[in-house]
Design goal:
Layout (H helix, E strand, L loop, with lengths): L7 H11 L6 E3 L9 E7 L2 E8 L1 E6 L1 H6 L4 E9 L1 E5 L5 E4 L3 E5 L4 E6 L11 E9 L7 H4 L13 H15 L5 H23 L7 H18 L8 H7 L4 H11 L5 H17 L9 H7 L5 H12 L3 H10 L6 H6 L1
Antiparallel strand pairs: 1-4, 2-3, 3-10, 4-9, 5-8, 5-10, 6-7, 6-9
Helix pairs in contact: 4-5, 5-6, 9-10
Length: 336
Protein backbone atom coordinates (compact mmCIF):
# COMPACT_ATOMS: atom_id res chain seq x y z
CA UNK A 1 0.00 0.00 0.00
CA UNK A 2 1.24 3.50 -0.83
CA UNK A 3 0.47 6.72 0.99
CA UNK A 4 -2.28 8.81 -0.52
CA UNK A 5 -5.41 7.54 1.20
CA UNK A 6 -6.30 8.65 4.68
CA UNK A 7 -8.83 7.83 7.34
CA UNK A 8 -10.40 4.54 8.40
CA UNK A 9 -10.13 2.99 4.93
CA UNK A 10 -6.37 3.53 4.95
CA UNK A 11 -6.13 2.04 8.42
CA UNK A 12 -8.03 -1.09 7.36
CA UNK A 13 -5.77 -1.53 4.33
CA UNK A 14 -2.66 -1.15 6.47
CA UNK A 15 -4.00 -3.54 9.09
CA UNK A 16 -4.86 -6.17 6.47
CA UNK A 17 -1.34 -6.01 5.01
CA UNK A 18 0.29 -6.37 8.42
CA UNK A 19 -1.92 -9.32 9.33
CA UNK A 20 -0.34 -11.44 6.59
CA UNK A 21 2.58 -12.15 8.91
CA UNK A 22 1.50 -10.70 12.28
CA UNK A 23 -1.68 -12.26 13.63
CA UNK A 24 -2.42 -9.67 16.30
CA UNK A 25 -4.97 -7.13 17.38
CA UNK A 26 -4.03 -3.84 15.72
CA UNK A 27 -5.62 -0.58 16.84
CA UNK A 28 -4.79 3.10 16.53
CA UNK A 29 -5.97 6.26 18.21
CA UNK A 30 -5.53 7.87 14.77
CA UNK A 31 -7.73 5.34 12.93
CA UNK A 32 -10.10 8.00 11.59
CA UNK A 33 -7.29 10.12 10.14
CA UNK A 34 -4.79 7.32 9.53
CA UNK A 35 -2.20 8.01 6.83
CA UNK A 36 0.40 5.30 6.39
CA UNK A 37 2.80 3.64 4.01
CA UNK A 38 3.75 -0.02 4.03
CA UNK A 39 5.93 -1.95 1.63
CA UNK A 40 6.07 -5.71 2.07
CA UNK A 41 8.28 -7.98 -0.03
CA UNK A 42 9.14 -11.66 0.31
CA UNK A 43 12.85 -12.48 0.05
CA UNK A 44 12.76 -16.25 0.01
CA UNK A 45 11.14 -17.35 3.30
CA UNK A 46 11.88 -13.93 4.84
CA UNK A 47 9.27 -11.17 4.73
CA UNK A 48 10.70 -7.64 4.55
CA UNK A 49 8.63 -4.68 5.76
CA UNK A 50 9.08 -0.93 5.59
CA UNK A 51 6.33 1.14 7.15
CA UNK A 52 5.36 4.57 8.39
CA UNK A 53 2.28 5.43 10.50
CA UNK A 54 1.10 7.93 13.14
CA UNK A 55 0.45 5.53 16.05
CA UNK A 56 -0.38 1.87 16.63
CA UNK A 57 -0.98 -0.68 19.34
CA UNK A 58 -0.11 -4.31 18.59
CA UNK A 59 -1.50 -6.86 21.00
CA UNK A 60 -0.98 -10.62 20.72
CA UNK A 61 -2.80 -12.88 23.18
CA UNK A 62 -2.57 -16.53 24.16
CA UNK A 63 -5.82 -17.14 22.29
CA UNK A 64 -4.31 -15.78 19.07
CA UNK A 65 -1.24 -17.94 19.60
CA UNK A 66 -3.35 -21.09 19.94
CA UNK A 67 -5.11 -20.30 16.63
CA UNK A 68 -1.87 -19.85 14.69
CA UNK A 69 0.60 -22.63 13.92
CA UNK A 70 3.28 -20.34 12.40
CA UNK A 71 6.30 -19.76 14.60
CA UNK A 72 7.98 -16.53 13.51
CA UNK A 73 10.49 -14.05 14.81
CA UNK A 74 9.56 -10.40 14.18
CA UNK A 75 12.60 -8.13 14.14
CA UNK A 76 12.12 -4.35 13.90
CA UNK A 77 14.51 -1.44 13.59
CA UNK A 78 12.79 1.72 14.78
CA UNK A 79 14.09 4.63 12.70
CA UNK A 80 11.84 7.36 14.11
CA UNK A 81 9.26 7.62 16.86
CA UNK A 82 9.14 5.75 20.15
CA UNK A 83 7.55 2.64 21.56
CA UNK A 84 6.79 0.59 24.65
CA UNK A 85 6.88 -3.22 24.52
CA UNK A 86 5.65 -5.56 27.24
CA UNK A 87 6.21 -9.32 27.10
CA UNK A 88 5.27 -10.27 30.64
CA UNK A 89 7.87 -8.35 32.58
CA UNK A 90 8.51 -4.66 33.01
CA UNK A 91 7.59 -2.57 29.92
CA UNK A 92 10.60 -1.82 27.74
CA UNK A 93 10.82 1.68 26.21
CA UNK A 94 12.07 1.88 22.62
CA UNK A 95 13.58 4.88 20.88
CA UNK A 96 14.77 5.53 17.33
CA UNK A 97 17.86 3.43 16.61
CA UNK A 98 16.75 0.50 18.77
CA UNK A 99 16.31 -3.02 17.48
CA UNK A 100 13.73 -5.23 19.10
CA UNK A 101 12.67 -8.82 18.63
CA UNK A 102 9.43 -10.61 19.47
CA UNK A 103 8.31 -14.17 18.74
CA UNK A 104 4.87 -15.28 17.61
CA UNK A 105 4.58 -18.05 20.29
CA UNK A 106 4.87 -15.39 23.00
CA UNK A 107 2.14 -12.89 24.00
CA UNK A 108 3.13 -9.26 23.83
CA UNK A 109 1.69 -5.77 23.91
CA UNK A 110 3.48 -3.03 21.95
CA UNK A 111 2.57 0.63 21.52
CA UNK A 112 4.23 2.99 19.07
CA UNK A 113 3.79 6.75 18.75
CA UNK A 114 5.32 9.30 16.43
CA UNK A 115 7.52 12.07 17.72
CA UNK A 116 6.48 15.67 16.91
CA UNK A 117 8.02 16.54 13.54
CA UNK A 118 9.72 19.78 12.55
CA UNK A 119 8.08 22.19 10.12
CA UNK A 120 4.54 21.40 11.16
CA UNK A 121 4.58 17.87 9.72
CA UNK A 122 2.44 15.26 11.45
CA UNK A 123 4.18 13.04 13.97
CA UNK A 124 4.87 9.56 12.63
CA UNK A 125 6.67 6.32 13.37
CA UNK A 126 9.06 4.83 10.82
CA UNK A 127 10.56 1.38 10.90
CA UNK A 128 11.96 -1.48 8.87
CA UNK A 129 11.82 -5.10 9.83
CA UNK A 130 11.86 -8.72 8.86
CA UNK A 131 9.67 -11.67 9.74
CA UNK A 132 11.26 -15.12 9.46
CA UNK A 133 10.54 -18.67 10.60
CA UNK A 134 12.06 -19.38 13.99
CA UNK A 135 13.41 -22.65 12.62
CA UNK A 136 15.81 -20.74 10.34
CA UNK A 137 17.94 -19.49 13.23
CA UNK A 138 20.73 -21.81 14.36
CA UNK A 139 20.18 -20.66 17.96
CA UNK A 140 17.69 -22.57 20.18
CA UNK A 141 14.56 -20.59 21.04
CA UNK A 142 15.28 -21.02 24.76
CA UNK A 143 18.61 -19.19 24.35
CA UNK A 144 16.98 -16.31 22.46
CA UNK A 145 14.03 -15.93 24.87
CA UNK A 146 15.78 -13.55 27.34
CA UNK A 147 16.19 -10.99 24.54
CA UNK A 148 12.56 -10.92 23.43
CA UNK A 149 10.81 -7.59 23.82
CA UNK A 150 13.92 -5.75 24.97
CA UNK A 151 15.33 -2.54 23.50
CA UNK A 152 18.64 -3.65 22.00
CA UNK A 153 21.44 -1.43 20.64
CA UNK A 154 22.19 -1.12 16.94
CA UNK A 155 25.12 1.28 17.26
CA UNK A 156 28.04 -1.11 17.66
CA UNK A 157 29.48 -4.37 16.41
CA UNK A 158 27.12 -6.72 14.60
CA UNK A 159 24.22 -4.40 15.48
CA UNK A 160 25.56 -1.76 13.09
CA UNK A 161 25.96 -4.34 10.33
CA UNK A 162 22.45 -5.67 10.93
CA UNK A 163 20.80 -2.23 11.02
CA UNK A 164 22.59 -1.09 7.85
CA UNK A 165 21.72 -4.34 6.12
CA UNK A 166 18.03 -4.12 7.10
CA UNK A 167 17.75 -0.56 5.83
CA UNK A 168 19.32 -1.46 2.49
CA UNK A 169 17.32 -4.65 2.16
CA UNK A 170 14.03 -2.83 2.75
CA UNK A 171 14.95 -0.24 0.12
CA UNK A 172 15.94 -2.78 -2.56
CA UNK A 173 13.87 -5.90 -1.77
CA UNK A 174 11.31 -5.35 -4.53
CA UNK A 175 14.09 -5.13 -7.17
CA UNK A 176 15.85 -8.39 -6.31
CA UNK A 177 16.12 -11.28 -8.73
CA UNK A 178 15.27 -14.77 -7.39
CA UNK A 179 18.90 -15.82 -6.99
CA UNK A 180 19.73 -12.60 -5.15
CA UNK A 181 16.70 -13.01 -2.89
CA UNK A 182 17.81 -16.50 -1.83
CA UNK A 183 21.32 -15.28 -0.97
CA UNK A 184 20.03 -12.28 0.94
CA UNK A 185 17.59 -14.34 2.98
CA UNK A 186 20.58 -16.43 4.08
CA UNK A 187 22.55 -13.26 4.82
CA UNK A 188 19.66 -11.98 6.94
CA UNK A 189 19.73 -15.12 9.07
CA UNK A 190 23.53 -15.03 9.40
CA UNK A 191 23.63 -11.40 10.54
CA UNK A 192 20.67 -11.79 12.90
CA UNK A 193 22.22 -14.92 14.40
CA UNK A 194 25.58 -13.22 14.93
CA UNK A 195 23.95 -10.19 16.53
CA UNK A 196 21.85 -12.31 18.89
CA UNK A 197 24.82 -14.52 19.77
CA UNK A 198 26.85 -11.41 20.55
CA UNK A 199 24.11 -10.08 22.82
CA UNK A 200 24.10 -13.43 24.65
CA UNK A 201 27.91 -13.84 24.56
CA UNK A 202 27.63 -17.22 22.85
CA UNK A 203 29.30 -16.54 19.49
CA UNK A 204 31.16 -19.84 19.81
CA UNK A 205 27.88 -21.73 19.50
CA UNK A 206 27.24 -20.46 15.97
CA UNK A 207 27.91 -22.84 13.06
CA UNK A 208 31.28 -22.20 11.35
CA UNK A 209 29.56 -21.16 8.10
CA UNK A 210 27.58 -18.48 9.94
CA UNK A 211 30.69 -17.07 11.61
CA UNK A 212 32.48 -17.04 8.26
CA UNK A 213 29.57 -15.30 6.49
CA UNK A 214 29.43 -12.59 9.16
CA UNK A 215 33.19 -12.09 8.96
CA UNK A 216 32.86 -11.49 5.20
CA UNK A 217 30.02 -9.02 5.79
CA UNK A 218 32.29 -7.17 8.21
CA UNK A 219 35.09 -7.19 5.66
CA UNK A 220 32.88 -5.66 2.95
CA UNK A 221 31.52 -3.06 5.35
CA UNK A 222 35.09 -2.14 6.39
CA UNK A 223 36.07 -1.75 2.73
CA UNK A 224 33.12 0.52 1.92
CA UNK A 225 33.91 2.71 4.92
CA UNK A 226 37.58 3.05 3.97
CA UNK A 227 37.59 3.38 0.19
CA UNK A 228 39.06 6.88 0.50
CA UNK A 229 42.31 5.43 1.91
CA UNK A 230 44.78 4.76 -0.93
CA UNK A 231 46.59 2.23 1.27
CA UNK A 232 43.48 0.05 1.64
CA UNK A 233 44.92 -3.30 0.51
CA UNK A 234 44.04 -6.94 1.16
CA UNK A 235 46.84 -7.08 3.76
CA UNK A 236 45.38 -4.08 5.64
CA UNK A 237 41.89 -5.63 5.54
CA UNK A 238 43.17 -8.98 6.83
CA UNK A 239 45.09 -7.32 9.68
CA UNK A 240 42.02 -5.27 10.68
CA UNK A 241 40.00 -8.50 11.03
CA UNK A 242 42.74 -10.52 12.76
CA UNK A 243 42.94 -13.23 10.09
CA UNK A 244 45.74 -14.31 7.81
CA UNK A 245 45.87 -12.90 4.28
CA UNK A 246 45.84 -16.38 2.76
CA UNK A 247 42.73 -17.39 4.75
CA UNK A 248 40.89 -14.19 3.86
CA UNK A 249 41.83 -14.49 0.18
CA UNK A 250 40.62 -18.09 0.06
CA UNK A 251 37.31 -17.48 1.82
CA UNK A 252 36.55 -14.23 0.00
CA UNK A 253 37.28 -15.69 -3.43
CA UNK A 254 35.14 -18.74 -2.69
CA UNK A 255 32.22 -16.62 -1.47
CA UNK A 256 32.40 -14.16 -4.38
CA UNK A 257 32.55 -16.87 -7.06
CA UNK A 258 36.11 -16.16 -8.12
CA UNK A 259 36.50 -12.42 -7.57
CA UNK A 260 39.60 -11.67 -5.52
CA UNK A 261 39.63 -9.25 -2.62
CA UNK A 262 41.93 -6.88 -4.52
CA UNK A 263 39.58 -6.91 -7.51
CA UNK A 264 36.61 -6.22 -5.22
CA UNK A 265 38.35 -3.20 -3.68
CA UNK A 266 39.20 -1.87 -7.14
CA UNK A 267 35.64 -2.41 -8.38
CA UNK A 268 34.17 -0.61 -5.37
CA UNK A 269 36.54 2.35 -5.83
CA UNK A 270 35.51 2.73 -9.47
CA UNK A 271 31.82 2.28 -8.66
CA UNK A 272 32.02 5.04 -6.05
CA UNK A 273 33.81 7.30 -8.53
CA UNK A 274 31.12 6.59 -11.14
CA UNK A 275 28.39 7.66 -8.69
CA UNK A 276 30.28 10.71 -7.41
CA UNK A 277 31.03 12.01 -10.89
CA UNK A 278 27.30 11.93 -11.69
CA UNK A 279 26.31 13.58 -8.41
CA UNK A 280 25.19 17.20 -9.03
CA UNK A 281 26.31 18.13 -5.52
CA UNK A 282 29.92 17.22 -6.46
CA UNK A 283 30.06 18.79 -9.93
CA UNK A 284 32.47 21.51 -8.76
CA UNK A 285 35.05 18.96 -7.63
CA UNK A 286 37.79 18.35 -10.22
CA UNK A 287 37.96 14.81 -11.57
CA UNK A 288 41.31 14.15 -9.90
CA UNK A 289 39.85 15.14 -6.53
CA UNK A 290 36.94 12.73 -7.00
CA UNK A 291 39.49 10.03 -7.83
CA UNK A 292 41.50 10.79 -4.69
CA UNK A 293 38.32 10.65 -2.58
CA UNK A 294 37.92 7.09 -3.88
CA UNK A 295 41.46 6.11 -2.94
CA UNK A 296 43.10 6.51 -6.38
CA UNK A 297 45.43 9.52 -6.12
CA UNK A 298 47.16 9.03 -9.50
CA UNK A 299 45.00 10.77 -12.12
CA UNK A 300 46.41 8.83 -15.09
CA UNK A 301 45.89 5.47 -13.35
CA UNK A 302 42.33 6.45 -12.50
CA UNK A 303 41.49 7.56 -16.05
CA UNK A 304 42.81 4.34 -17.60
CA UNK A 305 41.00 2.11 -15.09
CA UNK A 306 37.76 4.06 -15.37
CA UNK A 307 37.74 3.91 -19.18
CA UNK A 308 38.59 0.21 -19.20
CA UNK A 309 35.67 -0.49 -16.83
CA UNK A 310 33.00 1.92 -18.08
CA UNK A 311 33.96 2.45 -21.73
CA UNK A 312 34.38 6.23 -21.42
CA UNK A 313 36.64 8.70 -19.69
CA UNK A 314 35.62 10.16 -16.31
CA UNK A 315 35.08 13.58 -17.93
CA UNK A 316 32.84 12.10 -20.63
CA UNK A 317 30.78 10.31 -18.00
CA UNK A 318 30.36 13.53 -16.01
CA UNK A 319 29.29 15.49 -19.12
CA UNK A 320 26.83 12.78 -20.09
CA UNK A 321 25.36 12.71 -16.57
CA UNK A 322 24.79 16.47 -16.74
CA UNK A 323 22.71 16.14 -19.92
CA UNK A 324 20.40 13.42 -18.56
CA UNK A 325 16.95 14.89 -17.84
CA UNK A 326 15.58 13.63 -14.49
CA UNK A 327 12.15 11.93 -14.78
CA UNK A 328 9.33 14.23 -13.64
CA UNK A 329 11.31 17.44 -14.23
CA UNK A 330 9.82 20.35 -16.17
CA UNK A 331 12.07 19.52 -19.13
CA UNK A 332 10.94 15.89 -19.14
CA UNK A 333 7.26 16.89 -18.94
CA UNK A 334 7.70 19.36 -21.79
CA UNK A 335 9.20 16.62 -23.95
CA UNK A 336 6.27 14.26 -23.43
Amino acid sequence: MQAGTTGSESFEQWRETMRHTRAAELTSEHADTFAAVVHQTHVGPVSVLKTSFPSIQVRRTQRMIRRCDQELYHLTLLTSGRGLVETGGAPQPLTAGNLHLVASPQPYDARFRGEPAAGGERAHVDGVGVDLPMSMLPLPARRVRPLLGRALPADRGAGVLLATFLTGLAAQAALLRPGEAARLSTATVDLLSAWLAGQLDIEGSLPPQTRQAVMLHRVKSFIHQNLHHPDLTPSVVAAAHHVSLSYLHREFTRDSQGETLAAFIRRQRLAKAYRDLADPALHDLPVHVVAARCGIPQASVFTRAFKATHGMTPSDHRRRARTVVPPGSEQAQAAE
